[in-house]
Amino acid sequence: MTYPGDIWRQSDTATIARNFAANGMNIFFPQINWGGAGPGYVETEFQLLPWLTAATYLVFGEHVVLGRLLSLAFMLVAAAAFWGLARRLLPATPARWALAAFFLSPAFMRWGTAFMPEATVLAFYLLALLGFCRWLQEDRPRFLVWAGAATSVAALVKPTSLHIGLVIGLWVLFTAWERLRRPSLYMAGLAALVAPALWLRHAADMHATYGNTFGVISGGDSKWGSLSMWLSPEFYLGNLRSEAIFIYGLIGPPLAVLGVVWLWRRRRAADQRARPGASPLPLLTAGAIALTVYYFAAGRYTSTDMGIQYHVYSLPYAAVATGVGTAAVLGWVRRRLGGAVTSAVAGAAVLLLGAQSVNVFVQSLPDQAGVFGVCATELDAVSAPDDLVVVSTTSRTTDGAVANNYQEPVVFFLADRKGWSLPADHHIPDEVEALRTAGARFLVVGDRQLVPSDGPLANWLSDNARPLRTTEQNGCAIWDLQSPPETAQGVEVR
């Protein structure tokens, strides 16, 4: 199992951190390297993790591991917030097993060690849930302020976290519907949206000015699902696959189902003695509804390998249900078979829940740069740091009828070069000529099918550029666009 979307995202995150450290630490102007000859300012989410990582670079030097360690720190904050939530919703034993399920989830291992914003957003997402839980239980305004502030930061880091508004609305409806009449609830919600709205407006302006985007709000990419997608079995199978493998760890689903059934059967007794927000079932129900809406809305990514990270929000709900189910199984074993067998079963549960997590983590360790790594090494050998390059990509500008983020940042990051990404549907002489005129010095192609030997672009390159590397040698071809082929006499092409 590989992670095709991760290397793309981690390369961009690391590039932004590097550029913050090199160019002045202005958090309001994140920069990527595929912005051509311009400064590379890009429409993206609020870059909290890269900015913090850049601050550590200024002290310790540039080491990508620092970004990973910051992700781990945020994931530990998420775990602490989850524990605060679990122990307010569950009895002691199920709460401890819920925390174990949180730590043993592949999601914890994968995104807690990745140079990506998933751990960061999950930390603030869970802080928001914890603050709101305390408001439901204790009815103190400060906890509503807490929840609103954490929601605001989560939405800044990743706007996809805004589905938490539906979670919170349903949670109130299910547990303390009379509070829906309070103006303070809506004031807190609106206040939470101010900073994300201002950031998204600023980010959209950067896209309009500089032309670079992650497809956050103003175009360039579409994450929305469609009717044809929702009617496709692959949509449901893809979402279920990501949940089972990366959130529940394969054996978690039956335990989670058992946990929900156990809670449902005891709901009336729990409701009679519980104050608002003290039962986990309303939160699990609200989370299931909100996540379903979210997975449908962002269906273009949530159902594919390119959007596995979109499922990170399922972790707290999955951990609660799995923890309750595990505790229920162990309680049954203890009553019938005694303490020694219960301890053995508990140990087996830990091993089984953690096996897939370890598998996911181990498979994330090897270098997955592949041909991109080769291209970066070869590009670094033939170019200077200030040379502008064109990096070919197999992605297209459109996916079906919708805009697609085709930019390929891996080579730009590994070689520390700037320039343009050339989408698969733009491999034509006029496009390359225009980029050469704009200042591009090198063309890098990692897939020979993009420049077939008898195609128009290959013929144009043979007349207008000097080949420096070929795909036959190492899978990566590089042309010097500023040197005509007649200057290549006596030069070895490798």
Bin the helical content: 55-70%
**Which whole number gives the mean pLDDT?**
92
Computed Rg: 25 Å
Distance between the termini: 33 Å
Largest sheet descriptor? 5 strands, mixed
Q: SSE order, as H and E?
A: HHHHHHHHHHHHHHHHHHEEEHEHEHEHE
Please mark out the parts with pLDDT under 50 across 5 or more consecutive residues, or reply none.
488-494
Q: How many individual β-strands?
A: 7
The quaternary organization reads as: single chain
Task: List the total number of helices.
Answer: 22
How would you sum up this structure, described in words?
The chain is mainly alpha-helical and 494 residues long. The protein is built from 22 helices and seven strands. The strands form two sheets. Strands 4-1-5-7-6 form a five-stranded mixed β-sheet, sandwiched between helices. A hairpin with a 2-residue loop joins strand 2 and strand 3. Helix 4 packs across helix 16 and helix 7 runs parallel beside helix 9. The two termini are 33 Å apart. The C terminus is likely disordered.
